[in-house]
Amino acid sequence: MDTIVAGLPLWAFLAACAVTLFAGFVKGAIGFAMPLILIAVLPSFMSAQTALAALILPVLTSNLHQSLRQGMAPAVASGRKFWRIILATMVGIVISAPFVVVLPQQVLFLLLGVAVFGFALLQLSGWSPDIPPGRRNVIELGTGLIGGLYGGIAGTWGPPAIVYLLAAKVEKTEMVRVMSVIFTMGAVVLTLAHLRSGVLNSVTIWLSAAMLVPASLGMALGYRAHDVMDQARFRRYTLILLLLSSLNLLRRGIFG
């Protein structure tokens, strides 16, 4: 009989730890992509709902830690500066989370994948968009809402916010902090929403808690890489990761 750890066979649990360790490293180095990596890989050896539950606590704690890495005052300042995108993200998650068990996800994967792929490819080619100051507030609200609607279903609301912050040319350290504040607030809402939906329950919450260990170790290693990375390299790696993430979204949208 297979040994069961946190509701999974031992081999699947160890595989989940390895994937989460890598996702934590990428998160620490670039500032995002933990849920993108986890939701892309974990469902290959567990159900999609179990994978969504597994990422909830690591995503919440890693973003909280990253948002406070420079202290409380900078985190609060970033929250005030980008409050529109934060609020819209939370609203979107609340709206879409109840539909996670019934709403087909493939159309959302395709729509978001095409948009993110196009933006990342254009940026890597040298195109640099400017956001008109008069439209920044509306764009922030729309970006947050789109990300939240997607995140409540798929567990990842990062790509739209990252696309916006890159287009706004936010500096590396502030960009990571802003992303983490946005992601933390969204993660709080996601956690509460899926406690209510039943995705995070008396079995899956232990799996999610166990993933905190490899996630934290990966984050610590990733921070070292981030601190020695210059702005140009950070931007390039972020765009490459967005491009790869968009290809995975397209794959899931086409093949399920």
Helices and strands in order:
Layout: E1 4-5, E2 8-9, H1 10-30, H2 34-41, H3 48-67, H4 72-81, H5 83-96, H6 106-124, H7 136-154, H8 158-167, H9 172-197, H10 204-210, H11 212-227, H12 231-255
TL;DR of this structure?
This protein is mostly helical and 256 residues long.
Describe this structure as you would to a colleague.
The structure is a single chain. This protein has 256 residues and is mostly helical. It has one domain. It has twelve helices and two strands; from the N terminus they run ββαααααααααααα. A two-stranded antiparallel sheet has the order 1-2. Helix 2 packs antiparallel against helix 3 (48-67), helix 3 packs across helix 9 and helix 7 packs antiparallel against helix 8 (158-167). The protein is globular, with a radius of gyration of 17 Å. Its main location: membrane. Keywords: Cell membrane, Membrane, Transmembrane, Transmembrane helix, Transport. This is Probable membrane transporter protein. It is a multi-pass membrane protein.
Keywords:
transport, two-stranded antiparallel sheet, 76% helix, 12 helices, transmembrane helix, globular, mainly alpha, 256 residues
